[in-house]
Amino acid sequence: MRNSQIPVATLSDDSASTKRQLSFINPEDLDRAWDLGFFYLETPDELDLESARQFGRELIATDSPYRQVPQYGELEGFIALENNQQTKLALRRERWGQHYPAHIAAFGRQLDAIGIAIIRAVLRQSGIPKALWDCASGGYALGGGEAFLNFVHYDTRTPDWGLRPHTDYGFVTILDASAPGLQIEISGEFADVPVLRGHLIINFGEALNFITAHSDRAVSAVTHRVMSQQSSDPVRHGIVYFANPDLDGMLWQFDASGEEQGNSSVDDLFAQLESRLTKTQ
Ligand SMILES: [Fe+2]
After folding, report:
1. 224 CA to middle of ligand 1, Å?
2. Is the dihedral of CA 124, 128, 131, 134 positive or negative?
3. How far, in Å, CA of 66 to CA of 162, rounded?
4. Cα–Cα distance between 226 and 179 in angstroms, integer?
5. CA 9 → CA 40, 59, 126, 165, 249, distances in Å?
6. CA 102 to centroid of ligand 1, rounded, Å
7. For residue 106, how far is its CA from the centre of ligand 1 (angstroms)?
8. How far is CA 244 from the centre of its chain?
9. How far is the CA of 92 from the centre of ligand 1 (A)?
10. Alpha helices, DSSP H only, in 142-265?
């Protein structure tokens, strides 16, 4: 697949996050991004990506103090899964200040601003009245909701799938990957997503598909997987940010006239997705 088939967006550098505009070269690229649920975003100049990458690389050292970050439930903490190639340090926004160094917590807040700009672009296109955006997005569009900032490593010496085919459950995922391996499903076939220097990878999740489903412009949740790696560098590093609704909240489906067309608790939606995933494997 050619690079040019994946649309590329830029963010204007207005410092007020609610004014930042996401733009594509032409309307067709925006349409394709919304249909795929996937695009590249030119890395904003002010994002301190290099120091975040360095933090990520240092994490896997056997003497790294971050290995001691405790696990909170299944999703947070320093986690090494035995059955695949993944090791990660994962934390939700509320714990960034406690466990991440200050510059990484600040980096997370910069990703919050990017996530908010993206979800506002989706809601703008959807036609859902602005007064309902906070409600529709489970608080995320106005700076609430849940966000995770995770540093992930795939150890390529372990033979297994990097990550099986899935859709993300939340709204928007922002990914910085140091090596190829990511594939997305386009028209029923998996295609490589090349690492494009100077760009982040953005993908849309199920919750974003859900809240736009009855609007003027629904978006897709992209199915993706990470191939087992055999690169020259035995560890593939990634920084992943997940923009989610409040996990104990509700999601609402509005149409462009502001009428409610459906709703679900986040719990129920995610449980439904989980059972679908289990059945297809
Ligand atoms: Fe994913």
Report:
1. 6
2. negative
3. 22
4. 11
5. 6, 31, 18, 25, 30
6. 26
7. 23
8. 9
9. 16
10. 206-212
Q: How close is the Cα of 257 to the center of ligand 1, in Å?
A: 32
**Ligand 1 centroid to residue 273 C-alpha, Å:** 13
Q: How far is the CA of 12 from the centre of ligand 1 (A)?
A: 26
Task: pLDDT tens for the chain, 281 residues: list them.
Answer: 444 489 999 998 766 656 789 999 999 999 999 999 999 999 999 999 999 999 999 988 889 999 999 999 888 999 886 656 678 999 999 999 999 999 999 999 999 999 999 999 999 999 999 999 999 998 999 999 999 999 998 776 666 656 788 999 999 999 998 778 889 999 899 999 999 999 999 999 999 999 999 999 999 999 998 876 565 567 778 999 999 999 899 999 999 999 999 999 999 999 998 887 665 44
Gap from CA of 215 to ligand 1 centroid (Å): 25
153 CA distance to ligand 1 middle (Å): 14
- Rg over CA atoms, the chain: 18
* CA separation for the pair 267, 262 (Å, rounded): 15
pTM over cut 0.85: yes
121 with 22: CB under 8 angstroms?
yes
* 31-43 b/e (C-beta count within 10 Å ≥ 16 → b): ebbbebbbbbbeb
CA 278 to ligand 1 center in whole angstroms: 16
Please name which of 184, 208, 224, 212 lies closest in space to residue 266, comparing C-alpha atoms.
208
CA of 4 to the centre of ligand 1 (A): 22
